[in-house]
Amino acid sequence: MICVVQVDTAVDFSTNTMIFTRLTCVLIIASTSIAVQFPPNPTSDMSADDKILKGNKTLEQSEESGHEIETDIDEVKEKKFLDDAMRTVLDPNAMIVKANDIVETFKYQLDELDKVNNSLDVFMDEMDKLSLDVCKTSQEALWSYVTDINNEAKKNEMVRIAAEEDEIKKQYWNILKKKYLNDEQVMNDPKVKRKIRIIKERGTNVQMPQSKQREEIDTMQRIWSRVTVCAYNSSCSAEDSVRTMSDVISIFKTSNDTKELAYYWKVYRDTTGKKIRPIFKDYVVRMNRVAESENFTDAGDMWRYAFEDDNFVATVDRIWSEIKPFYDLLHDYVRAKLKLVYRDLLKSNDKLIPAHILGNLWAQEWQAIYPKVVAYADHMRPKLPANETIHSKDLFDAVDEFHQSLGFESAKDSFQDIKETMATANCLPSSHDMCDGVNYKIKWCGDKVTDVVVGLSRAARLLGHVQYFKHYRNLPPLYRDGPNPAFHDAISDIVAVQLTSPEHLMTLNLVKVETGPEVTLNHLLWVALEKFPLMAYAYVLDKWRWDVFGNSSLEDWNQHWWDLRIKETGVSPPVPRNETDLDPAAKYHVVSHVQYITYLISHVLEFQILLSLCKRANHTGPLHECSIYGVKEAGKLLSDGMALGASEDWRTVLQAITGETELSTEGILQYFSELQKFLQEENIKLAMLSEGDMDQSAPIIVGAIVVLLTILIIVLYCVKKHDVGSKVFSVCGLSKNGSLDIVTNELPQGKSNEVDGISEDKV
User: Can you quote a single GO CC term (predicted)?
Assistant: First the structure.
């Protein structure tokens, strides 16, 4: 409903006429609003007024008698609305908000909340309601865009509303700082402290919504997202000679041409990191200023605040030091296997793997090279025959059935409408909480499923997020999240790793599956090729960013990146690099100001929680053989932890699920213990094989040396016997009495004697 009042400046309206006109408009709006009654949000907390509702009645206190009197609630609401309308009409500074501009409505509501001096409780209740409304609107706009990704108008609307959502998060924190942080309730109430911590974390870590503050991030994202490069061995003027990022990613997965891979590796970074580097300097300065204004030491410190660990850097270093021995085993195995394919490229003994031959543009996960490094080549991964397909819904049904076996509610509504569409470069699978406590949606990409294991993993992760949404839906809006940034991914991955084991795959009848120790080791290797390189990459990427943010004297940014990459992960650049490059900025998370250490923490949490669930299921064998399918006791343990959302700190939630209060690598190391034994033994064999290759070439080299020495001895013998040498030297002017004595004087005195002294006996 839009109310438009046209005013002709040539006519002088009376005050009464103006008030009447405005009142008419407001009454029209009032009557429309009263006629359309929206149901209350099923997940929002009851307000203080709602708690005394009885049916459609409310209790008020008579001013005369002091007794409670019964009043019709609709009359109360209508009276309140009309009172507000009259205040709007009589206040010359009041603004009538256009109903078609929801963003302006949110801004107006936020300004009004800032002006009014409410108590802390009332302010937080009102902000929760506003945040929930914004969240609903933002998710609707986002969903509208992701289901129609080529619609520019929907994209712009989504971006505009998302920016306002970030602005509200920021202003929520700013208003709290300005008006309420000295409140006695803040100091003494642990629940209020918890809420304020969450508000601060979200308010300081939003992506700087104002356009001026976002300038560097917007520019870096624009450069990164519009990357195209010339095709290998072609000019950009030729037809079909341009390659997008999606094309380059596919080439890295499939090509064995090391020159082609090195070309794309370099040119991609030339068009991203090299161009971004000058902007990145300004971004670092600006982000550090933002962090310092919030009393953090730098932007890295501000990021780490979300993990609620005063010693988080030390915690991360500890975790990596415990995982690195296994990573090194995997790295050495992969290098030895790749050496059989790329013999010339890996002939040096530096123990490094060039980044371009690991099957990934960023070398952050190595599953694409699995066929080259498979443990038992006769037992390949489960794969559909060429003439068979599986519908995406079949995958989600399998995941949903697993969840229900744990005692969870079905989430079938979230994937009922997924479509088998053609995969596009811009399509990303995603899970959406529509913020109303009822509706959850999944965006799926791809025209058909060809790899059941990959498809099941993706479906399980997407539906795992939805299950988490559903578990904390009854909490206040601030608590509808995981207790730290890693929990959502950790919990959604647990069912993914369970579903894709060979033993469970056999029960699904989706694809023909082998079983046995060789198949199990192949599967463990497949999983490890995804998780451990990603954890290594996450560790190095954010260690590098923490160093850049925290050390203003650090100038050799790119050199520091490769120092860390080589030292910690054994991965090297395929071509020379210098300080005009900024190779980390080839990653989306770097140009978008999104932390990455989550992936290291989430994988550790995933197996720490799985270990606890398997103990609850009374499993006694190797952890990778554990299945929690159908074990409702394990499901309840997990469900109770998920239902806490962010209402408690992460240590409390972790303790509720595992009995522990610190991150532990015991689970992940136990899960891959069988693979660890295999890698230790296999690396010894591969090292001997490599030495054997050298041994095979040794007889050829020795034989050649023997032949050359024999020929030399025969020649010297003939020279000595026939005194040919002195004649030749004399002719050349190189006798002791010749004009070039200075040349012969440089030779050691005993040299000629040794040659002269050679006899047949010594030969």
Answer: membrane
